[in-house]
Amino acid sequence: MSELGKLITLEGVDGAGKSTHIEFIAQRLRTHGRTVLVTREPGGTPLAEKLRELVLNEPMGALAETLLMFAARADHVRQLIRPALEAGSWVVCDRFSDATAAYQGAGKGVPMDLIQQLAEATHPGLRPDRTLVFDCPYEVAQQRLNATGRRLDRFEREDRQFFERVREAYLARGIAEPGRIRLIDGSTSLANIQRNLEDNLSFN
Question: Using CA atoms, how far apart are residues 187 and 53, in angstroms rounded to an integer?
Answer without folding.
Answer: 29
